[in-house]
Amino acid sequence: MARMKRLGWVGAAALVFCVGCTSIKGYTVKDKQDYVLQMRNETLRDLYEKEPGAKEHIQKCAGYAVFSSAGVKLFLFGAGNGFGVACDNETRDNTYMRMFTGGIGLGLGVKDYRLIIVFDDKEDLETFIEEGWDFTGSAEASAKRYDDGVSLSVAKSVNANITIYTMTKAGLSLEAMVEGTKFWKIDELN
After folding, report:
1. What pLDDT digit, counting tens, does each position of 50-80 carry?
2. CA separation (Å) from 141 to 17, 59, 100, 138?
3. What's the whole-model pTM score?
4. Closest Cα partner for 121 from 41, 185, 189, 64?
């Protein structure tokens, strides 16, 4: 029993540590915005190298969102935290956002990943920006490693007008979890 309590405390500490790892760097609002936009640009560059067709898709869509996130899965619990920006291709407006993921199930691992959500429909993009988005689903993941250490997966959302690209930057995770992800605006940066 004492061993299970210790394991629980270690797991909780790891979750808190990981959730705290993804902060936006900078002192001023402009510094923070620039940091997020730099992450977006680097992520898109990496995506286009791995999936060249994504560039044309993103240029022609209503808009897209790019997030940087870190997550940890320890036995029965998982959590992740991140930040990003949603971009409207028509107006060229940027909306700075946060994300949080929590889940239960079997899992073990830590990973740093980028999430790119492509919205073919303007209404879906606006709903995502204005109301946030709760996405819940189950996932089983295995890591494929490229020579440069980046893994890419592509999925269609339940909504056929949304495509989701996930690029694992570092780490390894083996999981079968039910997770929920919440996205919302960062008032300070918008």
Report:
1. 888 999 999 999 999 999 988 777 767 788 8
2. 22, 29, 19, 10
3. 0.77
4. 64
